[in-house]
Description:
This protein has 141 residues and is mostly helical. The protein has five helices and no strands.
Amino acid sequence: MSKKVENGLLFIWIVSVVATLGSLYFSEIRHYEPCKMCWIQRIFMYPIVIMTTIAFIQKNARIAATTAVFAIMGSSVSLYHYGIQKLSFLADTAPSCGLVSCTGQYINWLGFITIPFLALTAFILIAGASFYVMKAVKAAK
């Protein structure tokens, strides 16, 4: 495995670990109860940590295709979730999320950074790094 591929996998792992620890910080330490859409985003993020840990140990860069798929699906949910928080015409389409509203904003740093925005950023970074790894593997052949 080339150094580029190894660094790409490490970057994916670091971003996914930070995102996972961030979500656990908000829910377990700050006691922000996640809505249903937050749980869906976690379903796409948490496995990336496990997958890239195993792939890094095994020196298996083929996992990049899987992490790209998880990141694209997770970013789609994050983008919609962010949209229903920030765009009034989308807020009307928000699903019924039970005890916690999906349109609620526990944080709103600088007027635009919410938890779904943070998740979207992480998913975009993971997707970009996944495509970088796939390209680097293809170029090495």
